[in-house]
Specification:
By secondary structure, the chain is an alpha/beta fold. The protein contains 32 helices and 29 strands. The chain has a 7-stranded mixed β-sheet, with helices on both faces. The protein has a 6-stranded parallel β-sheet with strand order 23-22-21-24-25-26, covered by helices on one side. A 5-stranded mixed β-sheet has the order 17-18-16-19-20. The longest helix is centred in the middle third of the chain and has 24 residues, at 299-322. The protein starts with 6 loop residues before the first helix and ends in a 9-residue tail after the last helix.
Amino acid sequence: MNQHLNIERTKLLELINFNKTITKARGSYLYSDIGDVYLDFTSQFGAVPFGHNPDFLWQTMIAQKAIEPGVMIQPFSTKGASQLSDLLIRFAPGDLEYVTFGCTGAEVVEVAIKMAKAKTQRNAILSTENSFHGKTMAAALATGNSYYSECFYPPSEAFAHVPYSDIEALENALASKQYAAFIVEPIQGEGGMVVPQDGYLKACEQLCRKHGTLLIVDEVQTGLGRTGKLFACEHENVEPDILLIAKALSGGLIPISACLANKRAWSKDFGQRHSATFANNHLATMIGCKVMEKLTGEPEILHNICESGNYLHQRLTTLITKFPVAFAAARGRGLMRGLVLKDWVDEESYLCPTISGQGFIVPLVSAYLLNRHHIFTMPTLNDNNVLRLQPSYLITHEEIDTLIQALEEVGSLIAEGKFSELLRAAIGLKPQPSQITTRPYKNQTIVPVGEKLGTFCFFVHPVTEMHTIDCMPGGRNAYNAIETEKVLNWLDNAKSLYGEAAPAYYMPCIPSAKGGYVDGWLISSLLTPKDMMRLPKDKKTRLMDSYIGIAQEKGANVIGLGAFTSVITRSGTTVANCGTPVTTGNAFTALTSTDSLRQICQARDIDTGYMTLGIVGVSGSVGRLCFLDIGAEFQKVCLIGNARNLNNVEKLEVVAGEFILKLFTTHISSPLRPIFQTLAEAGITHHLINSFGTDQGNNYPGEQFRQIYLTVQQKYQDHHGDLKNFPLLLTNDIENTLPICDVVITATSNGEAFIQPELLTEGAIVCDVARPSDLQQEVKQKRADITAYDGGLVQLPAALRFGGPNIAELDLGITLACLAETVILTMSQVKQSYSLGGVSSIEEARDIFQMAKEHGFNTHLYEEDIIGPVLSKEYA
């Protein structure tokens, strides 16, 4: 593919395996450089009415060459422009008299808007929502989809929009008498082939007359036969003040457009101020003449459009009846049709519902039709769930049957949940071998009992590239090594184009042990932690806005920030004021992790009072809460920070000071706690700690905590003469510290595995809370003597799965504590945010842990992790 022509479009074409090189086109068929032949059901968005390269138009061009006409001779008139203007006015509806030529549809939209403003001396233009009028300045602002203007122009008070096919809304708007013109499409083509209610266009005409507003009928796509009449407005005998035509006028050969106007719209100001270099082009207008002569001189063409259009509609209607899970509706008129696809609901994967929510399913269907059946289709621009079916006027019943047969195969794949076949066509893979099985599952039916307590939304995303494949239909087992490489490349391209969030899974019922239930959604994007961390600030904000916007559309009572959505929002602080209670889930994650360690140690009769605990990532929210909750139960605690910043331990000093404060001023203090005893023997007293007068209040007193630590450290050194046995070791040197730790909690947001097998002491117990894991895969493979397990896992109150992937390929009834916290807070009907900012209190975390027990959520551990390997070390 050419790397100089709109590289963004090239990326999209490559993403859906549309990167074909077409070397020939004839009639309804396209021919590629490798010999493939494609049946064209788009006809260049309706700009190829008679098929590609019609002989009668080429003969016209050849004949023109022979006479050497003046093609571009402005300000002189060309014969072609004169003849075409006469033809257009003769066959146009109403009292249209004046013709202004252009090259594109958007150009004549601009012409019409200028004309209307010049005549009426009104500044504003009214159009409809979901409309499409082009991508130049005024055309884009008139278009009822801000996507096409927001990057280029600020919102303008000179352009307003009313709902399409809403007569009352139109009258209310026009009554202000501020609009120079109302521009409307007889059928919203890019809006999804939407046909308005009967009588709508006629009502538009009458209301415009009543309020002195010019009526612009945009027939760029509908005009010149597409709907079965020469002009679509003729279906209701509408006589516009300005009529716009383009696409079909070109015959598919030379760009040309026209703005037809009546006396109510024309003005001297416009005529004296508007011109265009390529307007009145003799060659283009001669082609336009032949197009008009063909359409008006051969009535069987319009008859075929009506007849073939009806046949296509009938076949589509039957298709919808046969596959109601796949297809929702057939829209349009004549040979301007759209097939509406239903959103994909796939219990097996997160990727299919996610890309469905991002408007990507019709491109995937188009990819399948092109690469498996050699049929060329495309989506409409404003409605991504509509498949454009807009063939040339010469389409046959047999060709329509060919399309329907292919669509039946698509419908069958969707109905059977074989979405992987549609994806494989887009990725450029052969059909899936029959021996590859999917991972079907079905949640048990849980009948909701009691009141609905609320709705939760939890934000997820893949934590590694391979995890993304796990979230696809079939998971990684559905692809061999070569295919996996192609899939990873495809996903990388997909993320660059579809990086925002979308709903991925709906859980209809999770019961509470206290009675009642909640429902909820997983909302996902395709981005991994690395992808998220590379985003500039504005892109991170946009991503989170998409997540939160969907959650609020779903009626979320509590929003949970899973994985790196918590990291890029600074532990939820940047979205705390979104209007919905938010949680990072860090509190329950931390306390289920410490609870799991207590269970393991109790089961093995291990006395932690003689052990050293290492916490990697202790300055993070989860690591900090783990330390505050369980640190006092160990003889020594190593607080391990960022290895890339060996000399900076200030953050660690803050957390250590907070721990000491809690140790001496709350119920966790006890002479039986080894660290308390060690410090007390060095003369550290409640009175000394209380003398700092810390009051956490609304602000985290980090510097005061740090001074507590430094004071205690100094007093211990003064008492013992050194810090050799000081119970808190603060370091960023992970390589020399981990080997002395008997128990390790690792809870970083590093984004990749970095703890190597040789760093862990013999018989170590390692609770890995990080997502993705901090432990390299070799740890479990090479170190049979240690217990390394995933912390932060929870047993749900019922045996349920969050879809086939179940977040991270978890077992039935198991989920992540951060997700569980979101559910628990929803069940508890909280009205405030929790676990935000990385400095939430240990007391709050314990409250959530207690809520969890009441609702029936429990820490999950596998039996082998509880029992563990046979240890070669003996602990007293």
